[in-house]
Specification:
The complex is a heterodimer of chains A (about 475) and B (about 250). Chain A is an alpha/beta fold and about 475 residues long. Chain A has one domain. Helix content of chain A is about 25%, strand content about 35%. In chain A, strands 5, 6, 8, 10, 11, 13, 15, 16, 18, 20 and 22 form an 11-stranded mixed sheet that branches. In chain A, a hairpin with a 2-residue loop joins strand 3 and strand 4. Chain A is globular, with a radius of gyration of 22 Å. Chain A starts with a helix and ends in a 6-residue tail after the last helix. In chain B, helix 5 packs parallel to helix 6. In chain B, the strands form 3 sheets. In chain B, strands 6-9-10-3-11-12 form a 6-stranded mixed sheet, with helices on both faces. With about 250 residues, chain B is an alpha/beta fold. Chain B has 8 helices and 12 strands. The chains are: A alpha/beta (about 475), B alpha/beta (about 250). The interface between A and B is medium-sized, with 28 and 38 residues.
Chain lengths: ~475, ~250
């Protein structure tokens, strides 16, 4: 680990977004625009059962009645939903039997991203579902996991193979009526990951999904459903990147987690969509609904997110603490630089008795960016002895960026104890000079200071990814001081 | 090692250094004394590369190189160390991580491989003993929550880790009780080798009871107004700075 840190600190050469390449892969896509017709087309392409098509149409009909929410502290240019391609998939000659059938160009793309699709090459102990544009390309270690009864596959495959599970859980945590982007996703979602951990099973490896937007003018609308049955445990990680483009791209995903009695789910995100260039041109609009339901007693859901990418981030991974003694956690580092905007935080809804939630949010703003924390802690009438601890820290670099905190509290039970702490600090020239005087360059000094500031959150990530995330933080902030 | 010629510098347009010339040879300990506001710390800041001080005239050669053209981190890697008068706190960054980064940057500069974790920890242990620093300090964040004395000892510890050729200690003695003062001075004496040099900036003579300088300079109003052997420090202790001020002012009148 220490050695890795050294590597990170000496590794950095330029501030460019290094995942900005585009792969020339033959695509199967449908024309631009959104209508019932298009939704039927997507559903047909995926050979979906009628119940799913109905779900999509219901969602679409709801979506058209709604308006984009305006309450976030974001300046969002108007989005023309008719100018987006809603389905694009790398073309495949035939059904995939083995890895050899995958387009070599596709394999190369994921190699370049550091996500080899060959199991033997992959990080030991991590199973990956690789999703490009609208479809899942390959899921590794499926057979190994199946021996334990763990289902880990693409969402489309789950619809085909495990329709009962999908029907039982899909939309129970994030209903299609939940919000504008959730409705949109429910209408047009293309693929994503599905995971089911059966009763009493501790998943022996990290599960992860890697999302890649490749095609131009294409929106990515994936959907992830994660179910941990009683006494089950899983740690899950998602990562994402996109090519560098001048126009904005829309990403509107849904993640739903269900934790049954005594189950525990850790969900970590390293979000590195293309943030746009220095002048704010291009970049991904990231409007994501993530929510977990602690359904059973003593269940636990923990969100950890490292948000460095996207031109605009609108994201509130939340927990519904329904089971008695259940607990929810949210650990977040959100970095904004140049012209990026982020409005991110969480909602903790305490329903069961003796429920507990912890929120640790670390915002880092640089350049001309705006970074907001928005969090709601809600304690319902019957949630006796609810506990919440929230800590929101902001770190500012330079004097042209902004940090904002919007904590909301709704407490309807007298026995609740809710704590909130907040700090704002600045990386000082004195700190940087002190490092310089010891032989540490300004860029490395910022890396050290920022990683020190975010340590509490980084420590929550699985180790391999903590290293990756540290590197990412430093790269994201390059050129922001001086 | 260090040759300063007619150095003039300003902060926010106000002239602070008004023509400093000074030469430090390998193996020498120089004491730089003078009343508050005479420009001692500004001189240290210029040598270390602080950007808020603007050099308006003069030159500084360090081992034959133009020091003023070098970035602050390169000066450090070339062996110039500044012991800060007010060491800076860096919350969240452990001393171990901070020093490891610094030591390995220095090694890289010399074309050496980074130290392994175990070699590094051994080095830390050895140096901690040398400067009698509490071993718990190393596990805390850089200077965070350190007492004044701990911060100063930590500067000496960092100096021991980086083994500079030229160390400038900016009022390292201020705010120290007598025991801490002794530890700091012992640290310096143990690190003294035949070929490395020190500039010890101090307001008081008492540090010089422990660190014996070869040459003592007195600064006043941005200039070095007197240079002599170590006996000058004693004279200052006895008479205070007023007689120097008078001497300088009289010389202007004359």
């Amino acid at each position: 680990m220490e050695k890795d840190q050294d590597k990170i600190l000496s590794d950095v050469t330029s501030g460019d977004y290094k995942y900005g390449f585009y792969s020339d892969i033959e695509m199967d896509s449908i024309p631009k625009g959104l209508s019932e017709e298009v939704i039927r087309m997507i559903s047909a392409k995926k050979n979906e059962p009628d119940w799913l098509l109905e779900f999509r149409l219901k969602s679409y009909r709801h979506w058209v009645t709604k308006k984009m929410p305006g309450w976030a502290n974001l300046k969002v240019p108007s989005i023309n939903y008719q100018d987006i391609i809603y389905y694009a998939a790398p073309k495949q000659r035939k059904a995939l039997d083995s890895l050899d059938d995958i387009d070599p160009e596709l394999k190369k793309t994921f190699d370049k991203l550091g996500i080899p699709l060959e199991e033997q090459k992959h990080l030991a102990g991590v199973a990956v579902d690789a999703v490009m544009d609208s479809v899942s390309v390959k899921t590794t270690f499926k057979e190994t996991l199946a021996e334990l009864g763990i289902i880990f596959c693409s969402f489309s495959e789950a619809v085909r193979e495990y329709p009962d599970l999908v029907k039982r859980y899909m939309g129970t945590v994030v209903p299609y009526t939940d919000n504008y982007f959730a409705s949109l996703n429910s209408a047009v979602f293309s693929d994503g990951s599905f995971c089911y951990i059966p009763k009493g099973v501790r998943c022996p490896m990290e599960l992860s999904t890697y999302f890649r937007i490749n095609a131009a003018n294409t929106g990515q609308f994936e959907r992830t459903l994660l179910i941990a049955d009683e006494e089950a445990y899983v740690s899950y990680l998602e990562g994402c990147t996109a090519p560098q483009r001048d126009e904005n791209q829309l990403h509107a995903a849904i993640v739903e987690i269900v934790a049954e009695k005594n189950a525990e789910v850790k969900y970590s995100t390293v979000q590195n969509w293309y943030p746009g260039d220095k002048d704010g041109k291009g970049g991904v609009f990231n409007f994501v609904t993530k929510r977990g339901m602690c359904k059973g007693e003593n269940s636990k859901i923990s969100w950890t997110q490292i948000e460095t990418g996207s031109a605009i981030t609108w994201k509130y991974p939340s927990c519904i603490l329904r089971g008695d003694n259940s607990s929810g956690e949210f650990y977040s580092v959100a970095v904004t630089n140049n012209h990026q905007q982020a409005d991110t935080g969480t909602k903790m809804t305490h329903i069961g008795k003796n429920t507990k939630s912890t929120i640790v949010s670390k915002g880092i703003s640089a350049g001309r960016s705006q970074n907001s924390y928005r969090g709601l802690v809600k304690v319902l009438k019957n949630a006796t002895n609810a506990r919440n601890y929230s800590q929101c820290d902001s770190l500012l670099m330079g004097d042209r960026c902004g940090a904002h905190t919007f904590p909301y509290l709704e407490v309807d039970n007298q026995s609740a104890i809710v704590e909130h702490e907040a700090t704002t600090s600045k990386i000082g020239e004195d700190q940087i000079f002190y490092c310089n005087q010891r032989g540490i360059s300004t860029e490395d000094a910022i890396g050290l200071i920022v990683n020190g500031y975010a340590r509490e959150v980084l420590n929550k990530l699985p180790m391999e990814f903590a290293v990756e995330a540290q590197k990412l933080l430093q790269i994201s902030l390059e050129g922001s001081v001086g | 090692m260090l040759v300063i010629e007619n150095l003039k510098a300003a902060i926010n347009g106000k002239n602070i250094l008004k023509g400093i010339s000074l030469e430090v040879k390998p193996g020498e300990i120089h004491a730089l004394m003078g009343p508050n506001g005479s420009g001692k710390s500004t001189l240290a800041a210029v040598l270390a590369g602080r950007e808020y001080v603007e050099v308006t005239e003069g030159s500084v050669k360090y081992n034959g190189q133009d020091l003023l053209a070098m970035a602050a981190e390169d000066r450090s890697k070339e062996g110039l160390f500044l012991g800060f008068q007010y060491p800076i706190e860096i919350p969240g960054v452990s001393m171990v991580n901070f020093m490891k980064t610094a030591v390995n940057e220095h090694r890289k500069h010399k074309g050496l491989e980074p130290l392994s974790a175990s070699d590094f920890l051994k080095l830390m242990r050895d140096k901690k003993e040398l400067v009698e620093i509490d071993s718990k300090l190393a596990n805390r964040s850089v200077n965070e929550g350190f007492s004044g004395g701990e911060k100063k000892k930590n500067e000496i510890f960092q100096m021991a880790m980086l083994e500079p050729m030229l160390a400038i200690l900016d009022e390292t003695d201020s705010g120290l009780d007598i025991d801490a003062l002794r530890i700091v001075a012992n640290g310096v004496n143990k690190l003294k080798k035949p070929d490395n040099s020190f500039i010890v900036i101090t307001h008081y003579q008492r540090l010089l009871d422990y660190i014996v300088p070869d040459i003592v300079h007195v600064m006043y109003d941005g200039k070095i107004v007197k240079t002599a052997g170590k006996e000058l420090a004693l004279e200052l202790e006895e008479k205070g700075y007023d007689w120097i001020k008078k001497e300088v002012e009289n010389s202007f009148v004359a």
